[in-house]
Amino acid sequence: MDDFFSRVSRKDIRGGYIVVLQTHGRNGQYNPHLHIIATSGGMDKNTQRWEHLEYLPYPMLHKKWQWYLLEMVREGIDTEEIEQLVDSCYRSYPKGFVANVQKGEVPGRYESLARYLAKYVVSPLISIRRIDGYDGGTVRYHYRSHKTEQVEEERVDVYTFIGRMIQHILPKGFKRIRYYGVQATKTFEQVREIIREALSKVKRVLKGAVKIIAQKRYRERYRESTGKDPFICPHCGQEMDICTIWHPRYRVIYDELDEIRRGKYEQKEKETFGDEGSGRAIRSSTKGVQLPLFSMWN
């Protein structure tokens, strides 16, 4: 992607990418592919300025994707058979490999893609409502086919169904989401102000792209996802205070008395009333900047 951006801009560009691994297709079979949310441009390594790209030639992207993939295969498996396979792929696909690209309508489609990916990462690949029947030997479930765009039914024996589900469980510690380029945490902290300034200059082109994101607390996230306030008692309707959080596996993971002993409220008092010596309130910022993006998946 950096090579692609650099060729288009004729500068040494470093973009930003959020990459999510998805291992299954809609019917649950093994179909590994990557979803990529990429910036529309990147940081010029020489001038340390943000370069916004309005035009991205996707045929060039297809060729770049093909070249890097095949050369990595050739380099990683140095055999005569692989050499013939790579040469055959170049001949059979003269226009490159397909990279399914949707240009982002800032802040449009990439937000729906982000919501889809977030849901996929934390949810099983097939929800219970898609399972239509089980007779003790076979399982019936439905899905919407990519090819026909119609709802189709799948009927498989129970062990095949279980196999399709568990093959997508990744090894412990395997990272499904990766951040590259200027989206990497350490790098983003270094170039945040440069990006913010660049976006403010091109906001005529990227109307709505500059978006300040405030960090949401657990209570807000839970309320948005379930429609219920976790701090309201279901019996009396009064607001509750957290005193202890108990987990069935890890036991007590939060204890208010321990927090008091550690000086939790002393710190809160400082943040509220300020540093008496300097007369200034202590503040911490949780704001970030959202980059202009376009989504791509292979």
Structural overview:
- By secondary structure, this protein is α+β, with helices and mostly antiparallel strands.
- The protein folds into 2 domains: 2-214 and 288-297, no CATH class; 218-273, no CATH class.
- 35% of the residues lie in helices and 24% in strands.
- It is built from 9 helices and 15 strands.
- It has helices at residues 2-9, 58-76, 80-92, 109-122, 158-166, 185-201, 218-226, 256-261, 264-273, and strands at 13-14, 16-24, 30-39, 41-44, 50-52, 100-102, 131-134, 138-144, 151-157, 177-181, 212-213, 244-247, 251-255, 288-289, 293-297.
- The strands form 5 sheets. Strands 6-15-3-2-10 form a 5-stranded antiparallel beta sheet. A 3-stranded antiparallel beta sheet has the order 1-4-5. The protein has a 3-stranded antiparallel beta sheet with strand order 7-8-9.
- Strand 7 and strand 8 form a beta hairpin.
- Helix 2 packs antiparallel against helix 3 (80-92).
- It is extended and about 70 Å long.
- The relative contact order is 0.16.
- The model is unreliable at 204-214 and 275-298 (pLDDT under 50).
